[in-house]
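I would like you to help me understand the sequence and structure tokens below and explain how sequence relates to structure.
___
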Amino acid sequence: MPIITISLSDSEYQKLKEKALQSGYSTVTEFIIDIVDRYMEEASKPSEQAPQQAHLDLSEIRKEINNMLRKIQDLINPYTSKIDELSRKTAELAEKIETLENIVKAIQTGEKVAPPEGIAEKRKTALDYLKIDGYVLQKDLKWLRKPEAFFAKLKREGAIVVEGEKGYIAIDREFYEGLVKELEKIKTNDAKEAIQKISPKAKKLFEVLLNEGLVIYDSNTKSWKLAI
């Protein structure tokens, strides 16, 4: 049988002996053995707190996961809205390109452009469509077979047409007059600042004309002017 030796001071042994006698044990050895037996019995019992602790831990895990999901969603949301906006603009651009292709083909072949459903049929000229967008650039019409004839027709119908280094530029006359008035209100001589003040519809045209040297800043009037 294994033997366990416990080293105690005289005072500790005396206190242990008194405790054993008070508890009804004849010897200290019996008292110690009983303490060990009770401890082992308690240790072998299943813990009642374990399930509760596990439940608490699981709740904390769920809470952390939910927090992480919310943070991920917050990060994704801005990009989702940008993607939706980009998709919308792409669809609008594709629709405009398709419409313009149909116009050019109609001009070249002499065919009529089909009117939208529910609207009385009326043949639209290239100038009618130019009024919608305000201007058209030859570089955006890479599929155009006879650009000279196309832009000459627009000019005959009243559009303002200029030839730059990168091709023809046609501007609706009403849109042109509106742009002139808009430029008169911009007093900064910084081209980058001026671009930011231009309306979204005319911004691209302003940049094209600026690169072509067809828009300049007049230091006398302290405003931008079209050199067309």
Observations:
- The radius of gyration is 44 Å.
- The mean pLDDT is 78.
